[in-house]
Every structure is written in C-alpha cells, then in structure tokens.
Design brief:
By secondary structure, this protein is an alpha/beta fold. It has two domains: about 200 residues, Thiolase/Chalcone synthase (Peroxisomal Thiolase, Chain A, domain 1); about 150 residues, Thiolase/Chalcone synthase (Peroxisomal Thiolase, Chain A, domain 1, 3-Layer(aba) Sandwich). The strands form three sheets. Strands 1, 4, 5, 6, 7, 8, 9, 12, 13 and 14 form a ten-stranded mixed β-sheet that branches. A three-stranded mixed β-sheet has the order 3-2-15. The protein has a two-stranded antiparallel ribbon with strand order 10-11. The longest helix is centred in the middle third of the chain and has 20 residues. The N terminus is likely disordered. Bound molecules: 3-hydroxy-3-methylglutaryl-coenzyme A.
C-alpha cells in the first residue's frame, strides 16, 4: 500500500480502556474538615466524590491498567503499536518519561516511539492529536498508537481546589476508527497565563482561582466561535449528539456553557436546555471521580460515545492551564453502540472503598 493510500485511511479511536483508583471519599466528608457547608461543594461546585490513589496504586498503575484494558479490546496485533504517548502532569521525573514506567509494565519495547506529553490537563488531548496526525500523515505506515491520559490531582490540604480533587486514566488505541473517527480539522486557542502551575520541586499546584475560571471561559468562547464560523450556531451545535468538556469541576463546565451561549446571544432558557440535553449527561462519571486532569475530558468522551449509533457526532473541548485549549469533533463508529468500556468504570466503582474524613486526614499528614 502506498503512503498516499495510508494517508487517506480514516483514523480514530479503535478501542478504549479506563481505570479508577481503589479509594474514594464523598465531598460531605471533606466539608467539616475545612469548616465549609457541604452544599458549597455539592451545589456550588457540582462535585460528588473524589477518587483517591494509594501508595501502592498510583499514576503508573492507573495508566498501565487502562492500557491493558484498551489493548485487550483492540482487534489488532500488539506488534503494530509503534507509538506510546502518555499525557500527564503527575510525572515524577524531569527526564525519564512516564511512558517508560508504563512500557516496562506492559512489556512494550523495540520499534516504538515512547514519550510523555506535558501541558497541564491538555497533555492527553495533545497526545491524541499527535497520534492521529501521525497516522493521517502516512508516516505511521500500518502502525497504531497507544495513547494514555492519566493523572492524580491533589491540592494542598485546605486549598480551595481540594474538593475538586480526583484521579483516573483513559487509554485509547489510535488506529482504524471502530469506536470513533477523529476529524482532521480542530479548533485550538492558547494564551500564556499563570492561572494554575506547579513550579519544579513543589508538590502541589499554585492556583489563581478567579483567573483560571476566566481563562477557561475565554478559551471555550474562542474555540466554539471558530467551530461555528459563519454558520448558524443553533444548527451546528444541535447536530451534535453530545458536547464534552474538560471537567475540573462540573460547575466550571456550566459557567463555560453560559459564556458560549451568551456569545451566541441565546437566552437563559435556551442555554439551560442546551446544557441539560447535550452537556450535563456526559459528566456522570466525572462527578464520581473528580478532576483527573488529562483524563477528565476523555472520561467524559468515553461516557458520551457509549451507545451512540455509527455516524452520530460529538464535540470535545480540551483545556489545560498555562493555557492551551482545543475543540475536536468526532464521529461514532460501529463499535460505539456496544460501549463495552463502560464495564471498566462500573467494575472500578463497585470495587472501590469509601474512606471517611479522619482516614483521609491521616493520609494527607
Ligand atoms: P472557592 O473560592 O472556595 O469557592 O473556590 P467560591 O467561594 O467561589 O464558591 C464556589 C461556588 O459555591 C460559588 O458559586 C458560590 O456561590 C457557591 P458561583 O458563584 O461560582 O456559581 N457556594 C455555595 N453554594 C451552595 N451552598 C453554599 C455555598 N457557598 C458557596 N453554602 C475555585 C472555587 C474554583 C476557585 C477552587 O475550587 C479552585 O481553586 N479550584 C482549582 C482551580 C480550577 O479548577 N479552575 C478551573 C479552571 S482551570 C482548569 O480547568 C485547569 C485545571 O484542571 C488544571 C490543569 O489544567 O492542569 C484546574
């Protein structure tokens, strides 16, 4: 097959695997520890519970297990994996990529381009785009990519971001688009800002909360503006079965939807209907696991794709502090309807252990 023929091949998600860590805590347990009304966390931020890692089960285990699940569901031969790209901001080495730890556990070595991608919560999406464009360019030949977005999001105890914490991983094989085609055209927007950052040597992020909210809203407005272009926004957006967002906490997504709706001159009722129909249902798993940084958007995308008929389309808005954002569009493939990756989340949720506030406090000492 010539490289031109390969370049013309449709590319996208061939399989998905997800993984959540073994512990969780409800936001109701955190509120009294911080002297807050639980309603602030549940209603004000829209959070429900946070996934928590253990010393034995951290970002490497999350990423590896999600990858194993994605590979098990993929019909291709493992020898065809020519790229392993891990998007994360939980890296624990300035040089050695997290992908090396994961490759070690998966037994992946040889003619594989293995690396880590960092851009706050946007890193997973960048890895997906690189893998997709690598295949679309023809440079991949017949090879496929294994892309992982994995993070443990922890704030300093007492930080206002603490109730939004979480953890999780999503792995995707980028190959034939059996689950979803990823459109070649996407809509990026970036601005250099200090909204959320973690200087070298510091354990926790520094956050300018109000600035981060503004940056996220501005990024969403500009990306959706580019998607709609000169067309009718009502028509462009109503054709989408679902619209997924990076979910730092669900109320952030609502704020962004309001901003986008106001930009298109929609009234409050129209915005609310749009949010409830197209956006809110995609965040069911996010509410239960909290912010999983790079994985958050892809947890929402995995949720939205399950059960779709081939040909139905969705959009995915990625945001990473610093800041970089990108709006992608995807089209469901024949394996989306079965949505077999939902069983990963169901199994992990049923097996995870809930801890109380006292246990959590001890774990953060
Ligand atoms: P805060 O300052 O403690 O909260 O932290 P607040 O005082 O702004 O209150 C939050 C909401 O709760 C407000 O609602 C209050 O009215 C409401 P709003 O006005 O926003 O609609 N509230 C109540 N509601 C019901 N009952 C009550 C009650 N009390 C208050 N009793 C903040 C909020 C988001 C700043 C904090 O959680 C934070 O710093 N989070 C981390 C930063 C963040 O997530 N930013 C989002 C955009 S940046 C991003 O997405 C990137 C990121 O994922 C990182 C990356 O890219 O790597 C974070």
């Amino acid at each position: 097959m010539t490289s031109t023929a390969l370049a013309m091949r449709p590319t996208g998600i061939a399989s998905i695997g997800l993984n959540l860590p073994p512990l969780a805590m409800s936001v109701e347990e955190l509120a009294p520890l911080r002297g807050e009304d639980p309603k602030k966390y549940r209603l004000g931020l829209g959070c429900d519970s946070m996934s928590l890692c253990t010393p034995e089960y951290g970002v490497v285990e999350l990423a590896t297990e999600a990858a194993r699940r994605a590979l098990d569901r993929w019909s291709g031969d493992r020898d065809r994996i020519g790229m392993l790209a891990v998007g994360t901001e939980t890296a624990f080495d300035m040089s050695r990529p997290l992908s090396a730890w994961v490759a070690d556990k998966l037994g992946l070595s040889g003619a594989v381009r293995s690396y880590e991608v960092k851009h706050a919560c946007y890193g997973g999406t960048l890895a997906v785009r690189q893998a997709t464009e690598w295949r679309m360019s023809g440079a991949a030949g017949d090879q496929a990519a294994l892309v992982i977005a994995a993070d443990e999001a922890l704030y300093e105890p007492g930080d206002p971001g603490e109730p939004t914490q979480g953890a999780g991983a999503v792995a995707m094989v980028i190959d034939e688009p059996e689950v979803a085609t990823i459109d070649s055209v996407s809509y990026p927007w970036s601005e250099p800002q200090f909204d959320f950052w973690r200087p070298v040597g510091e354990s926790y992020p520094r956050v300018d909360g109000p600035l981060s909210l503004d940056c996220y809203r501005r990024a969403a407005e500009n990306c959706f503006k580019a998607l709609v272009g000169t067309k009718n926004p009502e028509q462009v957006l109503s054709e989408l079965a679902a619209i997924c967002f990076h979910v730092p906490f669900p109320k952030m997504v609502k704020k962004a939807v309001v901003r986008v709706g106001e930009f298109f001159s929609w009234d409050a009722e129209r915005i609310e209907r749009f949010f409830l129909e197209k956006v809110n249902p995609t965040m069911v798993w996010n509410r239960l696991c909290g912010n999983a940084y790079t994985a958050s958007l892809w947890i929402s995308v995995a949720n939205a794709l399950k059960g779709l008929s081939a040909g139905q389309r969705i959009a995915a808005f990625s945001y990473g502090s610093g800041f970089g954002a990108e709006l992608l569009t995807l089209e469901a493939g024949p394996r989306a309807a079965a949505g077999d990756w939902a069983s990963d989340i169901e199994a992990d949720l049923s097996q995870r252990r809930s801890i109380d506030g006292a246990t959590y406090s001890r774990s953060r000492e």
